[in-house]
Amino acid sequence: MTEEIIIAGFGGQGVLSMGKILAYSGIMQDQEVSWMPSYGPEMRGGTANVTVILSDERISSPYLQIFDTAIILNQQSMDKFEESVKPGGVLLYDPNGISHHPTRTDIKIFQIEGTKLASEMGNKKIFNMVVLGAFLKVKPIVQLENVISGLKKSLSERYHHLIPLNEEAITMGMNNVNPLKITESIS
Fold first, then answer.
1. Is the dihedral angle over the CA atoms 133, 135, 141, 142 positive or is it negative?
2. CATH topology for 2-180?
3. Where are the domains positioned within the chain?
4. 64-68: long-range contacts, CB 8 A cutoff, minimum separation 24
5. 92 φ/ψ sector (left φ>0, alpha ψ -120 to 50, else beta)
6. pLDDT (tens digit, 9 = 90+) per residue, 96-112?
7. DSSP helix/strand/coil, 176
8. What is the pLDDT of residue 187?
9. HEC-encoded secondary structure of 71-139
């Protein structure tokens, strides 16, 4: 099994953290892992993406042009990465701020209202965990216990009291992801 993932959005949305948690989770499952972040010089509001590869075999290169899964969190990323999903692959996105929704008919498309759900839970910072939960529902490539261990590894100890809230957010995402059916490609 090899899963090649791009997670893309604005800086401050937890894009890199989500990728790091996935990478740690893969390590906990004795998988080969690659985590390659890419971001602009801005701390918040600039573009950010991370490529994560989880595999049972050795990873030959972290540089990818096409992906099994794209997790998209803003319009710029949708414009850039929708076409980079392999036919038969998965595109998961939060519709908040998306004006041009995906139109491909050769991939599986899922939507998660991560922004709305995190807000309803009272903490917008758990947005990325809601989205991660949605991804894990669609593609359960890492076990939840390893995700929690990955959270412990990636969060500094002073934030460990937030792990139960993050776990709740993951569950919220798992329970609220919706498949979309695109019937015809819109040009």
1. negative
2. Pyruvate-ferredoxin Oxidoreductase; domain 3 (3.40.920)
3. 2-180
4. 64/4, 64/6, 66/4, 67/4, 67/5, 67/6, 68/2, 68/3, 68/4, 68/5
5. beta
6. 989 999 999 999 999 99
7. helix
8. 45
9. EECCHHHHHHHHHHEEEEEEEEECCCCCCCCCCCCCCEEEECCHHHHHHHCCCHHHHHHHHHHHHHHHC
Q: What are 6-63's pLDDT values in tens digits?
A: 999 988 888 999 999 999 999 999 999 999 998 766 556 667 999 999 999 999 887 8
Structure tokens at 44: 């918040």
Strand order in the sheet with 67-72: 32-39, 47-55, 2-10, 67-72, 85-93, 108-111, 178-180
Give every CB contact of residue 118 below 8 A, 6+ residues apart in sequence.
Answer: 124, 125, 126, 127, 130, 169
- What's the predicted TM-score (pTM) here? 0.92
Alpha-carbon separation of residue 27 from 54, 80, 85 (angstroms) = 9, 29, 24
Separation CA 9–CA 146 (nearest Å): 24
